[in-house]
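Methods: example folding runs. The two proteins below were folded one after another, and each record is reproduced exactly as written to the output file, sequence line first and structure-token line second.
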Amino acid sequence: MDTYTIHDLMNDSSIKIPEHQRPEMWTSRRQQTLAETIMAKRPMPNLTIRETGDANKKTRWLEDGQQRYISMKKFIENNLSFNSSNNVNHPLNGKYYKDFTDAERLQFLMYKIFVLKYENASYDDTIAIFDTFQNGVSLSPGQRFHARLETPLVKYARDRLLTPGTHFYQRISEIWGVHKATDDTKTKKLLVNAMAIAGGIVHGAEFITTSYDILGPKLHVEFNAEEADAVLEKVISIYEAVDSIYNITPADKKKQWDAGKITGYILYSLIQYPEREEELVERWTEYLVNVRDGSDTIKILHHNMPASRNWNSSRWSIGYKNIFEVRPELTATEKAEESEDEE
């Protein structure tokens, strides 16, 4: 355990933010509260740093305290003003760091923070420690997947579905619109959807899911990428066939990116009934064309779904049966709801 000043932290070029960390999440108000804490000389929790490299050149990875580090940096770079949450008449309210007196800037820079350092941690150790630090903090499934970028399944999902220049990316962009990992949201919504598709392709219908609890134990499992690609190729080819018959706008294609909309059902059928592949491709193509031209309805696919919105094999099975086995009759209410959805 060492003691750093803010000046030490801001001038240490060896400090890096690891890729598995969350992006900037704090609101401006919370960041301003931190500045108030510093100027009031109140304590804050320690930062945690993982050191790699040797004595001559170390890299210090900020494993806990990133939001505080970002907030301090923003304040010093004059991208955040001081604003007391406790005192509307505080003399520093509305001022930026550049507006502080020399004494006030020195007070900010000399604020002391405890820093816990550790080294010789494996990748799995690092992620386990990261999870421990997040205990009590609500992380989205996407953020948890993002924390495991080095695992085979997450790598596959990002490489095949979210990374420009890869084998499938251009074709996927044409059928589902442009989705890049670099454009993802703070909660990593694009990664979540990519993981649902990749999970089903690699591990079976029960893993067409956004649940980290279900997919998590499978992240480290090795698999045959060529076999997975063959399944993904079939899904893509169905959408390409539909586009060749009845194309739609890029905005409408983006709506079909959500695996829960259509793709989960297609993937389920290809996984469960590989011997019927030719028929499935033909029937799904026909159905999607009819949905696009208005002669069929998407509500049929989702008819009789349970109230729970969980993505699981039971959900996909119901949708498959609605299309391929017993076509349900929609109620007047469902027809009205679909009309509103389309509008």
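Second run, written to the same file directly after the first:
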Amino acid sequence: MTDKFSILRKIVLIVVVLLLVVAGVKYLQNRRQKANGNNGGAAPTIRYMNFEGGYTFKVPKDHAVDEQSVPGAQLVYTGQITAKTLEDVYTASGISIHPITDLTDHSGTAFKKYVNDTYVPDLKKNLSSNDVEVKFDKQNGDDVARISLKKDGQPFRFIYLKGGNHPVAVIAKQETDPFKNLTQSLQDTEKSEVKGEVEAIKQAVKSTAQLIKDQKAKELYASAAAGLREKNTEAELIAAMKAAAPFSDGNITISGATYISDEFSATMRFTKLDKNDQQPGFGELNFKKIDGQWKVQTVSLPNPTPTPAPAPAKKP
């Protein structure tokens, strides 16, 4: 079974519990709103960049990116989703994005063959529908396919596939305006407006995550932006990192970053070494560019739930 089919089942078919980790984009949305109020209405663009997939897209207005609920994919939606299934995300006009990992030939001919001979037949089989329409096009210099699928005569999925060096699938129930805006902005990172920042951002995230893993709070504190040191003492950072040790002793995964002008945020997923405890932890890093260098300005770390204090003894 190919990687694509595995991811497709995660994104299109199965019901999963969503943790909805979206603090990073909300932080940058507040930043955009403040900038919007100060410059006469021209709101800066929030852009998400995926490190491993090598793609980037503009985050639609008032939407958030959850990159942790389905590992390897991003969920983009607006508002609060009270139910916890992917179908509810799609019903609420939410969008999922994930790389296509088994399309290694980047030619236009190979892309069309892959869509017609592999993707669409398996889509029909897995979703039990033959009511599928495919349209090929070009966008931002890449081959793309727009696939609409109906069940019982009603729209069920709309899928946008991008070819090129970094193939990507974008999935929703219908092709809404936010969906169109996102796909129109979808690009390989090396072609995008943030191409000059990607490697520096990756390195800043990697270095900071390693300091957290190695419990090097003093080094992290010394290299941080003034904003972090103004709001936190070194002792507080040391205590927070020690409390997070059950998580940071394991693996720290950072899938990408949300970027706006001279700031970006990245979500950390912590996987414990304890095989009996599979619940991940989550943290947040926010960076600001100061004198040409990315410096961390806020750090959020997981903290194991403390053991409740015993109830006081009743007086006799």
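Comment on the second run: Residues 1-24, 307-316 have pLDDT under 50 and may be disordered.
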